[in-house]
Amino acid sequence: MDAPLILVQVERTFPGGPRIECELELPSDGASVTVLFGPSGAGKTTILRCVAGLERPDRGTVRCGDETWFDSERGIDLPPQRRRTGLLFQDYALFPHLTVAANVGYGLGDRPEAERRQRVADTLAMLRIEGLAPRRPLQLSGGERQRVALGRALAPQPRVLLLDEPLSALDAPTREAVRTDLRRLLASLARPTLLVTHDRIEALALGDRIAVMSGGRVRQVGPIEDVFSRPADLEVARAVGVETVLNAHVVDRPSEGLITVQIGAVPLTAVDPGHIDGQVLACIRAEDVVLERGPIGQVSARNRLSGTVSSITPEGPLVRVRLDCGFAISALVTRQACRELGIAEGEVLTAFVKTPSVHLIARGSA
Fold it and tell me: How many domains does the structure of the chain reveal?
């Protein structure tokens, strides 16, 4: 197995603008997709362009296996064509005057004609767009253009695949359909992939690992579910969209493995992360909050919070319900559940939060 692609202390500073830095490893596991995730302006695309060779870092190194692509101290900076990366741009950047087949084969100009034709045919077949070969980009739907752009990136058989917001140019219904196909394809490609997105659904659907960028640097790297459910610090919690982040302090460890924190006058029990005491932040995702009509009833091992509905906000097929439980907490429920519970502003509900769903971060952790 090849060594991983490693980005070590890559830094890029823009005059009068932000400083971007990144330390990241891409596993050599071919089925692994690493998502570079964060808000717009965090520096994600800059890092992608530095890997591809389209932008020169101020300092640092970029290596793929035992090959050095960039080393500021040694004066090494391989041009993009020698790095053999497959780059899918946000706007696809297809040549409007070329056919689909010619767009896909654009990066194969140094190959013999027979090999070029075969590689284009194989790529079109893999993407299931053989019938589009003679068309031009303006004759294609958004989803079709996305597949053609991906085919152009894949045809030269790149060592690393780089995708910059690959679904952002699509309308919502097309995006959902293409997302499923893209995940299937990425899983079958057997090459390291770095995918940039600011969209949480895309990150969860397409990635295996995630690197969260905030304030110009990578703040946490790990499996997707782990990072989203257990952010390392407040900046990561904000970046991954944890809706409820509360100032709290540790008051007790009632039994092995559990810890109790106080938020104002309200206690919450969480799984004890260990090595944490004093002032903390309690993080709760809205999808981990379960609602029930009426005030607190029978005792349960779960955290049970009585609260008054302060706002109801439809969000597509879901509804965000905000409660005042002595502190503000958000819950996401389906529209059907909202109707069945008869949720309305001013109603008193009980919010249930299981102990593993309360994630604690040391206050000031950053």
Answer: 2
